UniProtKB/TrEMBL annotation:
<dbReference type="InterPro" id="IPR002634">
    <property type="entry name" value="BolA"/>
</dbReference>
<protein>
    <submittedName>
        <fullName>Transcriptional regulator</fullName>
    </submittedName>
</protein>
<dbReference type="GO" id="GO:0006351">
    <property type="term" value="P:DNA-templated transcription"/>
</dbReference>
<comment type="similarity">
    <text>Belongs to the BolA/IbaG family.</text>
</comment>
<dbReference type="InterPro" id="IPR036065">
    <property type="entry name" value="BolA-like_sf"/>
</dbReference>
<dbReference type="Pfam" id="PF01722">
    <property type="entry name" value="BolA"/>
</dbReference>
<dbReference type="GO" id="GO:0005829">
    <property type="term" value="C:cytosol"/>
</dbReference>
<dbReference type="InterPro" id="IPR050961">
    <property type="entry name" value="BolA/IbaG_stress_morph_reg"/>
</dbReference>
Length: 101
C-alpha cells in the first residue's frame, strides 16, 4: 500500500521529501493492516496553498483508498521553506487511545 500511495503522490506532486509510514500497528487494526498512514510531503507545489486546501488535495488524491480500507491519514504537508524552518522534522503520531497504555 505504501508503494501505491507513493506512486500516486509522484503523479500529482514534485516532492523535495516524501515519507510514508504505515502506523496501523499503533491502532486497534493491528500490525500488518493497511488502515492508518502518516504522510510527510514537502513540495513547493503547496506555495500559496492554505493548509486546509493541501489536506483537501491529498484526500481527493486518495479518495478511492479512503473508501477501500484506509481509515486515517496523518498528514504533514509543507513547502520547502516551511520544512527548513522546522529543521526538517515533522511531529510524531501518538498511539491510539487504549493502545500502548
Amino acid at each position: 500500500m505504501e508503494q501505491q500511495l507513493t506512486d500516486k503522490i509522484y503523479t500529482q506532486f514534485t516532492p523535495h521529501f516524501l515519507q510514508i509510514n504505515n502506523e496501523s500497528h499503533m491502532h486497534s487494526s493491528g500490525k500488518g493492516a493497511n488502515s492508518h498512514f502518516r504522510i510527510v510531503l514537502v513540495t513547493d507545489d503547496f506555495l500559496g496553498v492554505s493548509k486546509v486546501a493541501r489536506h483537501q488535495q491529498i484526500y481527493q488524491l486518495f479518495a478511492s483508498e479512503l473508501q477501500n480500507g484506509i481509515h486515517a491519514l496523518a498528514l504533514h504537508l509543507y513547502t520547502l521553506a516551511e520544512w527548513e524552518k522546522l529543521n526538517q522534522q515533522a511531529p510524531l503520531s501518538p498511539n491510539c487511545m487504549g493502545i500502548g497504555q
